[in-house]
Amino acid sequence: MYFPSRFDGLALVVGAGAPDLLFGLGAGWLFAHSPWALPILVPAVVLYCLSLRRWALPGLFRLAPTIFGTDLRAYGAMSTSRPPLTRSLASAAVGVGSHQLWDSFTHAGHPVASALGLDQLLFTVGLGPLTRDFSIARLIQYSGHSFGSMITVGLLYLIVRRRSPGVLNWAEVDRLTAMRRPKATVPLSLVGVLTVAGIAVWPAVGGRGPFVLIVLWAVAVLVGGRLVERAYVDESSERAKPGQPAR
Predict the structure, then answer these.
(1) Mean of pLDDT values over 158-184
(2) Beta bridge pairs of residue 66
(3) Could you report the per-residue pLDDT of 21-37, keeping only the tens digit for each?
(4) Which of 41, 48, 104, 226 could be a cystine partner for 112, CB 3.0 to 4.6 Å?
(5) Are 190 and 181 in contact (CB under 8 A)?
(6) Inside any domain, residue 209
(7) Residue 208 domain-assigned (yes or no)
(8) Is 162 contained in some domain?
(9) For 220-235, how does the pLDDT look when each residue is reduced to its tens digit (9 = 90+)?
(10) What is the pLDDT of residues 80-121, one digit of tens each?
């Protein structure tokens, strides 16, 4: 929000989730959360962001709701931004590195948490057949997930509400939010199918299951956004043909 010309916001955010995606794709957890994974993750993040901008973002955000008077379709305007490659690479590296650094303090299996004694058992909670051990690292992890998610939602709201200069193309925002919303049947069906597929393979992959789901959802975002955009453009073109009644 304060330095929009110095960061590629999309690469920053996608990069912040990338280590878990690599783990979901079969890499070892420690490798995915180590600096050795940066040469793989950073260019992969930039390529995924390019794909999102080119094919998926307008369609994906055409489905976004209006919350407290703020129309989240505004974020489809990210598709018009073309940040320099060096900025995208640097932003992806910051996103990936921040995830890896945070997890080094918040996961018992990481050498940093072990060296600092953050993985020492504090108490155990039993939830029916499930039990969960809690350490300082896990408490930091869960509180980070909770407060971080709330802060993220708040920032998504404030950026659009305050129309922070330079963050989005506000002329494009006005154009997108003036359009009607298409039906969400196709992307929701796709998400549902991929979610069922992820749950089906969960027993085979064990603790990697949630991260396999994340990978499938990342695919659903790209493919679903593209399908919505194609259907919307095709229908808009059909509606615009002269001599035909509007549907």
Answers:
(1) 87
(2) 71
(3) 999 999 999 999 999 99
(4) 104
(5) no
(6) no
(7) no
(8) yes
(9) 889 888 888 877 765 6
(10) 999 999 999 999 999 999 999 999 999 887 888 888 888 887
Task: Tally the domains of the chain.
Answer: 1
Whole-number Å distance between alpha carbons of 145 and 132: 17
Q: For every residue of 78-95, which 3-state class applies, written as one string? A: HHHCCCCHHHHHHHHHHH
Element (H, E) at 219: helix 209-240
> For the chain, give me the number of helices (H) and strands (E)?
10, 4
Give dist(CA 210, CA 198) in Å, integer.
8
User: Could you give the count of Cα atoms lying within 13 Å of 8 in the half-sphere of its Cβ?
Assistant: 29
- Whether 85 contacts 4, CB under 8 Å: no
**191: Cβ contacts below 8 Å, ≥ 6 apart:** 217, 220, 224
Distance between CA atoms of residues 30 and 37, nearest Å: 9
Q: Is residue 216 part of a domain?
A: no
How far apart (Å, rounded) are the C-alpha atoms in residues 65 and 72?
Answer: 6
Single-letter residue type at 9: G
Whole-model pTM: value is 0.86
Cα–Cα distance, 175 to 172 (Å, whole number): 5
Domain holding 83, by residue range, is 9-182
Q: Rounded to whole angstroms, how far apart are CA atoms 218 and 11?
A: 14
DSSP character for 246? -
Integer Cα distance of 75 and 61 in angstroms: 6
Cα–Cα dist 159/163, whole Å: 6
Beta bridge partners of 132: 125
CA atoms within 13 Å, Cβ hemisphere of 131 = 4
171 residue type, one letter: A
